[in-house]
Structure formats: structure tokens, C-alpha cells
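Project standup — Tuesday

K.O.: blocked on the structure for the chain from last sprint. Re-posting the sequence here as requested.
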Amino acid sequence: MSTQAFYVAYDGPALESNQMAVRDLAPALLALSDLFDETNRILNGGRADVRLDVKGSFKSGCFGIDFVVSQGLVDSLMSYLPGGVSVEDATAIAGLLGFTCRDLCSGLLHVIKWIRGRKITKVEMKERKAVIFIDGDHLEVESVIIDLLRNTRIRQALESAITKPLEIEGIESFGVVESAEQ
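H.V.: unblocked you, prediction finished:
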């Protein structure tokens, strides 16, 4: 089984008591699950399933949640079989989204932060890479990041998981870090 653990935290004065309204949190949790499902659909085209679970350990100081994204052993092994179809595993999916330390500066979350509402002027596709141009600035990313960035469902899931909670008074930041726990 392929697994990847990460920790998501919302922070701000409204969360000093380590409490968050269920009506605010539930849509964000569902959106994170949708984000991984849609990314898996794009990368693996139905050849593998992923599952996002919440781990029951809450930390103090903000409102944080431990997650584990997993993929079944059979799905993970498919790409190693002779003539097997390539399957991106749970770690690769989390990495492409920017939920792992290795990919914090190259995943989708980083690209969206780099764009910051600016208009993309050009995208040059190379073999497995793409270069995004904005004004005189550019950023090279894996070409699949462009597919993720263009996907409406992924953008909606990110908005529900990150942007919507940050619109709540007293919630000021969102962060994600890779967790060693599996």
C-alpha cells in the first residue's frame, strides 16, 4: 500500500481555543478529499483509487488535522508488472499537489501562490516540463501541473479547502507540512 501523511493547519485569533465550527470545517475536509480524487482521476484515469483519511490527533495552538492519503497495494503494484500501466502512487499525488516537503516549491500549491492572481501570458510545453510566463517572470514545473491548474474541479476544491476558510473572520492562514507518521 502506498501512503503519504501530511498535516494541515488553519490559524488565526478565531482558532486560539483550538475550536472550529463544523459548518466551516466540513466543506473544507470534503474539498480536500475531492482534490485528491480529481487529481488521481487526472493522473491515473481510473486505474487506481485513492482514499483520504483524517487521523485522530489534534494539536494545540491552532486548528490542525493529520491526514493520510493512501492507495491500495494492488493499484500501487500495477505499474511494476510487465506491460503494466503506469500509476502515480499516493506519495506522487500528494507531491504534485505540493503536500510534501520535497515538492513544496514545485507542486500545485506553490504554483498558485507564485501566480497570486496575475495573468499568465504564455505557457511553453516541453517534454515533461512546462514553463509558465507572467510578465517578465517565469517558472518551470512538471507539465502535469498545467493539467491540474486548468482543471475546474481542482480549482474549486482548493477554493473550498483554503480560500473559503480564510474568508472567515479571525482565520488568517493555511499551512500544510509533510508528516512522518503514516
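K.O.: great, moving the ticket to review. The chain has a mean pLDDT of 86. The first strand starts at residue 2 and ends at 11.
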